[in-house]
Amino acid sequence: MKSKVLTAIVSGVLLLSGTFLTGNTVLAGDNGPSGPNYGGNETIKNERLHSYDEMVEFLEKADKRSEALELEVYGQSVQGRDLYLANFGIDEDNPTILFLTQQHGNETLTTEGALQVIKHLTSNGKQVQEILNNVNVLIAPRLNVDGAEGDVNFSLEDYVAGTHTRYNANGVDLNRDHVERNQPETKALHQNVLQKYQPDYMIDLHHQGTQTTLGDTGELVSGSILYPTNENVDPEVREQSKQLGAVVYNAIDSKGYGLISKYPGSNKPTISRNGLALEYGIATLLLEVRGMADHWYEDYVLGQKSNGYLIQQVVTAMEASLKALADGSIQSADTSFWETLPESNYSGE
Length: 349
Ligand SMILES: [Zn+2]
Fold this sequence. Notes:
Blueprint: H1 2-12, H2 52-65, E1 70-76, E2 82-87, E3 96-101, H3 109-121, H4 126-134, E4 136-140, H5 145-149, H6 184-197, E5 201-208, E6 212-214, E7 223-226, H7 235-253, E8 260-262, H8 272-280, E9 283-290, H9 307-326, E10 344-346
Parallel strand pairs: 3-4, 3-5, 5-9, 7-8
Antiparallel strand pairs: 1-2, 2-4, 6-10, 7-9
Residues 103-104, 107, 206 line the site of zinc ion (ZN).
């Protein structure tokens, strides 16, 4: 794994001095971290998000447009929906990163951000080519395709919007199924993506509640991050995970809207952040984005007004990771910030 990364440094270091895939800067303020919540007052308009059919159409169009993209179906969900992997090519001399979104069907903006990155990567810009020449990019958008459609074998009556569920169609939390892999979604991800392509890095993209704060400051965060915390994870893998976290932290923190806390996550191997690091030696990072499209806790649900900056936060995290892998700068990322990064606190009821 190391040698691949080192090769990428040598070949990529001079290529990427400019900005890659520049996004629009979104200013803090009304739409910033202390901006509006759903608060029970706003109509939830989840139809603005990509439905499954719209996502598939988007991916197929991108596939047609791009020589670099190989769109794969790597499995099927409980309800028979195809699971898609956007594969931008595997060169064994390059490091491989996997971006995984929406293991929880109600955590939607992660996929919206991933689709934007896929679109960027299918454009023929010079900087995109330099990225793709130096990094193997795998993007698996929306693992929980059934929950994201509300097409599940249980009632949604407790959910605020009644459109998206955390669990898959069998009522299972896919991000607690990474050891046993009893569900078709997790089984397919492990067999046909993780074991087949053996990524070096993985970012697992989620959403958390709306009221998470930076330590005891009372300031609402835009997101939270964490590396694999299970004590049996190889220390070198954990350090590489912390470096990936440093890249993401620095990129988001430099944005006006960005405020990041340390996620107080569990050490269980059933969670992908821990399980993939343990089983495959993948350097993993969890990124939790503020607010969900739907939940049974009203307090967790965010309306649409913050979607712009939250999607941008996902794009920023993904692009910064690609750039740091392509130019090798991830190898010198300073991980000391983790020691002082305040843990999440919670200002909700
Ligand atoms: Zn989640």
